[in-house]
Amino acid sequence: LWYQYDTDGSGYIEADELKNFLRDLLQEASKSQEVTEDKLIEYTDTMLQVFDANKDGKLQLSEMAKLLPVKENFLTRQVFKESNNLTKEDIEKVFSLYDRDNSGEIENEELSGFLKDLLELV
User: Fold this and answer.
1) Residue 54 in 3-state DSSP?
2) Would the pTM of this model clear 0.70, i.e. be above it?
3) What is the largest CA-CA distance in the chain?
4) How far lies 2's CA from each of 51, 74, 82, 120, in Å?
C-alpha cells in the first residue's frame, strides 16, 4: 500500500500523494459520490495537521501507520490461550502481523499497537 502511493519513491507520502490516497479511499467508501478537488485539499490539509508529527509537510511510514490501525488483537487468538502449544512459527506469524512495514522490527506505532493489545489481555 505504501509504495503504491509513494509514487516518487522518496520514502514519504507528500501532500499530492496523500490526496491521491484519500481520493481512492473516499471513492471506495462512497461509490456513488464524487469527491471535489476542494474537499480533497481540505481533507489532505487536515490529515497532515493531525498525523504529520514533525510538521515537515509529508507523512513518513510511522505517521501513516496511525491512519491504518490494527483491526484485530491478534493476541486473543486461540493459539495463545493454549500457551503450551506455541511454536516458533506461531510467534513469527504474530510478529509479522504487528510488523506492518515489514522491517523485521516492531517499532514506533507498531510497538504501541502491540502493547495496547497486550494490556487488553490483563
Assistant:
1) coil
2) no
3) 56
4) 15, 22, 35, 29
Residue 58 φ then ψ, to 5°: -150, 160
Half-sphere exposure of 52 (CA within 13 A, CB side): 16
Distance CA 95, CA 90 (A): 9
Residue 105: Cβ-neighbour burial (10 angstroms; 0-12, 13-18, 19+): exposed
Written as tens digits, the pLDDT of the chain (122 aa) is 667 888 998 888 899 998 988 888 777 766 657 778 898 888 888 888 887 888 899 888 767 666 655 555 555 666 555 556 667 777 777 778 778 888 887 777 777 777 677 666 54
Nearest to 26 by CA among 44, 12, 51: 44
Measured distance CA(16)–CA(6) in Å, rounded: 10
Q: Counting every residue, how long is the chain?
A: 122
